[in-house]
Amino acid sequence: MIGKLSLRKQRFMQFSSLEHEGEYYMTPRDFLFSVMFEQMERELGIQTAGCGSTFFRDLGDKGLISYTEYLFLLTILTKPHSGFHVAFKMLDTDGNEMIEKREFFKLQKIISKQDDMMTVNTNETGCQEATVKEPEINTTLQMRFFGKRGQRKLHYKEFRRFMENLQTEIQEMEFLQFSKGLSFMRKEDFAEWLLFFTNTENKDIYWKNVREKLSAGESISLDEFKSFCHFTTQLEDFAIAMQMFSLAHRPVRLAEFKRAVKVATGQELSNNILDTVFKIFDLDGDECLSHEEFMGNRFFYMIILEVCEERKH
């Protein structure tokens, strides 16, 4: 059965540790592990969550995340916040930048529906997951936004703060994981983080560049790492800027690359981190990056592909 599910649903099932009336749920810890690690070796089986008078007390601080919310949280981590603001405004019919619980659930269902439609269009077996239904129990996220009774309204400022805090928490955890707990990340560690997501025939060349071009002792700060993570959520716009150089049939130098980042994302990346990226992905040693050398890398290509595929539906 699990082989007929989308990749995201499979991953959700793999990391979920709670089950209630046939529906699987994650704890906040499960969600963090699903983002941080490739796979989960679970010593204990799935716990069954009852719905008695001690339900939430038994869960304690572990919390509850549904599959729909899992997709929603992943989207927060990988997409520009501007898109959420537009969707928020569309649901906000009276223009006060506040929405009710039922309106917020519409937004989650749209995101989940996109995942299901991508499954149908990319899976050769043509299978489709069951229609996502609203949970019969209040999840931690629902109570966080709308209170225990679901009657409170959610203001966009609060929602934006939640998105920013979530991104910051994940970025800090990834930074600590790859920096081995240090307050700085060696450039070799940053390369390991980048290449962790890379699965191409050029991976050996990338590591050769790391060994030969990156000087020992050089490091990247947490702020630089966060800026680069923010940049990766804006890659679709950046790809358009890079295509301008591709049409001119010329590679991009560091200063031009930096300007393209600024134009596409509204922010600047430090010369330190840009120099590192150039040295890793420069396959022909000309100290420039062609469109294929950078956007052809699987780490960046898969992020852009996912955005483009979703916008087709």
TrEMBL record:
Location(s), subcellular: Mitochondrion inner membrane
GO terms for MF: calcium ion binding
Keywords, alphabetical: Membrane, Repeat
PANTHER family reported in the protein's UniProt record: CALCIUM UPTAKE PROTEIN 2, MITOCHONDRIAL, EF HAND DOMAIN FAMILY A1,A2-RELATED
Swiss-Prot/TrEMBL GO biological process terms: calcium import into the mitochondrion; mitochondrial calcium ion homeostasis
GO cellular component: uniplex complex
Highest taxon, organism lineage: Eukaryota
Protein name, as recorded: Mitochondrial calcium uptake 2
Main location (coarse class): mitochondrion
